[in-house]
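thoughts on my protein:
***
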Amino acid sequence: LLDEKLEQIHATANSRDKISSLFPVNKSTVYFDAASTEINKIENGIASSYNPEKLFKPDSNALAGAWYVGTRGAFCFDAESGTTSASIKFSDSNIIWPRAILKDNDFFWLASSDGLIKAKPYIFSRYAVDKFPYYKDYYSVAALQSGKILLGANFGRLFEKKENTFTLIKDKPVPSAEIKAMYEDERGRLWIASGYQGLVLMRNNKTERYTIENGLHDNSLYQFIKTTNGKLYVL
């Protein structure tokens, strides 16, 4: 609408792809949600479609943006950054054909074909992990002083969080055992307790391994404990 005149700036390729929500950024950029193609963007007359999951940034501010109902769920979408910061999958909540959503503190009101529903969002997020065909099990997680998050897996593999994916950063710091626990000490050294290959120390991009031959009581280790007097124990 300009100077009391309406001008069509876009038409969906499929006339049945109904536009349900608009998110204008400025006069040249507009996002909108359509029933089939989900999030769309018109920028300088050029239209693009996006899957909300591809725009998902779990580390962004979940309070930014506006909540809207999409085909696969509800998303908190921020048009300024073009990202979604939180989402609810209706298939996980047994909600039938929702039409509108309203955030109410820590809950959501959903108007649906099954009536009015008060829902609490799922507190967990699922992250992708670089997979190998012969294992899918993970045993430990650690947050480092640098802010990095590490994931310990079977077959001695170590992963690091990269945005919304965990990527392999160290192949076999232990020969083949599970990484049961991790601990970063005051000097930034990483200690790793393995399922049956002893204790591993990682420092300066080098790996040192200790076993019963070095005085350990057992090669199967599961936990680190730091006492108030500064001693570090591995169990």
Observations:
- The first strand starts at residue 19 and ends at 26.
- The chain has a mean pLDDT of 84.
- The two ends are 70 Å apart (CA to CA).
